[in-house]
Amino acid sequence: MFEVPPSLFLEIKKDGSPYYAYPDMVCMAMVEYFAFEAQRTNATALSNFRNLARYGLQKFIYDALGYTPPDRWKYHHDRVSILQGSASDGYFIVFNEVSGLIVDLINASLTVNDKTIPDISVGMCWADHWKQKGLEGIYGPRIEYSHNYPDYYPQSRSNPQPAKAYPDQAIPEFRRWFRHEYLPTKFPKYILTKAHLLSGPDEAKQIASMFQPKAITGKSGKSS
């Protein structure tokens, strides 16, 4: 049996004013009451109770096994950190511009690692577009910078690697190209070649479909 605290809260003072701190046991009891016992139960309280209960059991199991779950943001955050300030002021690097795609994949609980972050694919396709459209004559020349990978990436064996940074004036064109050309036409093919590195072809198809153009429907509900 756990010991019931003599008071629902602990009174503390800060800057001469009283504040009331509620122990986790009391907070859980209040959430449980509004989830199950109140005359009008609260859907938010029920959801919060389930989330808190699930986290508590999960943490208990992890602590008992001495297990630390993998950080699904690690492959992204470590590259953001190591590439911070790599390019000169006035220039952008491709990785930073594709971070939104990577965040979307992580938030969808899909696989993100050194094999599936597509900045190399994007960089090669964008370089081809840059040359084919003569964009240097419009925005100015690219510059070279030293690109590094975190040491646990296989690509780190050839650090530092020469890479291209592009003039900031070209960012609108890059974003237009990335959204309307790369994502719908090149990215699906790229990610499907990585199916063996994911959970299987179903996950690869799910990732590819996330960035397909949405069909426009009229009032009848039919695609146009």
Percentage of β-strand residues: 5-15%
Oligomer: single chain
How many DSSP-defined strands? 5
Provide the spatial order of strands within the biggest beta sheet: 3-5-4
Briefly note the structural class of the backbone.
Answer: mainly alpha
Radius of gyration: 25 Å
| Main beta-sheet strand count, sense and barrel state | 3 strands, antiparallel
| Structural domain count | 2
Helix count equals: 9
Overall pLDDT, averaged?
80
**Helix share bin:** 40-55%
Shape: elongated
Secondary-structure element pattern, one letter each: EEHHHEHHHHEEHH
Distance from first to last alpha carbon: 65 Å
Low-confidence stretches: 215-221
Task: Give the topology.
Layout: E1 10-14, E2 17-21, H1 24-37, H2 43-65, H3 74-83, E3 91-92, H4 94-97, H5 99-107, H6 119-132, H7 136-139, E4 143-147, E5 161-167, H8 171-192, H9 201-209
Antiparallel strand pairs: 1-2, 3-5, 4-5
